[in-house]
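User: Predict the complex with magnesium ion.
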Amino acid sequence: MAGETNVTYRRGMDHTTQQAEGGSATALVRLAGVNKHFGDLHVLQDIDLSVARGEVVVVIGPSGSGKSTLCRAINRLETIDDGVIELDGHRLPEEGKALAQLRADVGMVFQSFNLFAHKTILENVTLGPIKVRGMKSSEAKELAMGLLERVGVESQAHKMPAQLSGGQQQRVAIARALAMQPKVMLFDEPTSALDPEMINEVLDVMVGLAKDGMTMIVVTHEMGFARKAADRVVFMADGQIVEEAEPEVFFTNPRSERAQEFLSKILTH
Ligand SMILES: Nc1ncnc2c1ncn2[C@@H]1O[C@H](COP(=O)(O)OP(=O)(O)OP(=O)(O)O)[C@@H](O)[C@H]1O
Ligand SMILES: [Mg+2]
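Assistant: Here is the predicted structure with magnesium ion placed in the model:
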């Protein structure tokens, strides 16, 4: 029975149905009734979102709709005013060791690459496993080299970040997040700061990850990625989840006026 729930759940039903059927019990990431204000601005409004293990969810929506805040809340880089956020059945810890552990379980890749500028590529990837996971240096190096190979930059291991292209740096950022062996990966517009010719090399790595079964929440307007890799597209506007559907359904037949308007804008560019 639990297995059955899992299967239907992964195929991207709307979240109300999931909850009605108890699907949320199998969620790896679960947000329920989440609200967040920045002063007068109600930036997250009653957000309910469950992401199953192995599911790939693309979050899309206009600038200022709260997509980054949503990601940051899941990683607890932002606090929330009320509601619940759970990772693998546990509420996000407030502070201390448990919070550090949570951050290790949630890999995050941002728009700007955020590599440590004064460390080599290899050191960038080994640092977390050594410091946070307590891994031996030799083991961490082996893990890191494997990951750098997976993202196609193993030949750059001994260079400094500034010597790499944007696309290479972003692939290192992905390897660095993976080195912590996270349960879920969050991507916040990982390709929007890249020159066009570098976008695909990063998206290809992400498609590979998705195929390997990584649970992913990806803020992106790259519809090709969504079509190839996403189980579900979540459309946000003004701090709310307005609509969610499988990519093909969402892109060809958006139900809400907000989504129609948004898609007509990004499609004509
Ligand atoms: N630390 C902050 N203090 C005050 N307001 C903030 C803060 N961070 C974000 N906001 C505001 O919250 C709203 C949502 O911001 P957020 O960055 O989550 O949007 P977004 O959907 O990621 O937008 P974009 O597509 O431009 O990245 C915006 O109006 C933004 O100005
Ligand atoms: Mg953003």
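The two ends are 46 Å apart (CA to CA).
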